[in-house]
Amino acid sequence: MTIFAQRLDLGGAGPRVAVKDTIDIAGIPTRAGSRALADAPPASTHAEVVERVLAAGCRIVGKTNLHELAFGVTGLNDWTGTAPNPLFPGRVPGGSSSGSAAVVAAGEADFALGTDTGGSIRIPAACCGVFGMKPTFGRVSRAGVAPAQTTLDCVGPFAATMPWLVRAMAVIDPRFAPVSLPAPRIGLVTVEARPEIAAAVERAVAAAGLAAHSTTLPGLSAAFEAGLTVINAETFAAFGHLLARSPGEPEMIGPDVAGRLRAGAGTSLTALAAAEAVRAAFRAEVDARLDEADVLVLPTLPDLPPTLAEARGDRSAVFLTTLVRPFNLSGHPALSLPLPLGPGRVAALQVIGRRGGDETVLAVGERIAECLCPPARDLCL
């Protein structure tokens, strides 16, 4: 098992940064964790976000492993090997940005870059007990990031602490300027989740001394389904050609990802139009709730992350995305921060903010993280 797709030593003497292998680094092939891209040529230029990292004097220490083609939520990858979960080794690292979460959990990078199309930053952050941020859609440049065309995907950072996460956002987003919120208003979203996780979220908000009121998002389930429709269609459009092979040639894509790509091929224009209608309605619904609160808070995952054995069994892992995928569809910024549940058990809290209000999301996250005692990483063994 490996965290890195390739180790590097590139840039200045500043913070150590790892980069998901869907983000171009000049002179290095971008293989997206797939055998089908094993012979990809080296990238000719850096992705714009990599240029920003290097301009800030950071040192890129490697490209990180991932769930193949960034199209899966467990992080399991039989071609590259599955990135280990450093703090919770019996459980999946989460996907798709598994290596980027694992590398900061292992202390091998100060922050890491991942991408999030349907929870692919927040899920591995939750599974590995670290912090992960999906910015507002379009806020961080995706130039030089695969897939090239998307209405869902965002580049964002992972870090082992909130101060490092804030520092990372300042590096990759030229408009980012930290803010202070003395008394943020919290909308505590009622969702279907494991009772101990829901209780841990409520305790964390209360411990931070934040004024909270209960609220609901009735469109959450429909947004989850619509998000699946859109990601399936857009990922097939980006990578479906990799399924082609001559008679007798072996499959170049792992069976789990190949199956989802083929399913995406059947997405109709009618289904996409319906999904877009749901997108508009859910975005308006979230905006309305955020007229009554500075942020919304809910669990990142509805249940404990599956074990490696469970993920390799018949149990579907799509349930991991029920509370995260809707906010890719709507485009709102979303932060995941770890919550202590006890030895060997990890949960996470999610903070959702207004579109463009990434600074507010991180300010609330810092406030909550300061009050979590003991930290989740002290309870992992």
UniProtKB/TrEMBL annotation:
Domain Amidase residues, every copy: 17-362
Function summary: Hydrolyzes indole-3-acetamide (IAM) into indole-3-acetic acid (IAA).
Pfam families (UniProt xref): Amidase
Listed GO MF terms: transferase activity
Keywords: Transferase
Protein name listed in UniProt: Indoleacetamide hydrolase
Family according to the record: Belongs to the amidase family.
Keyword flag Transferase: yes
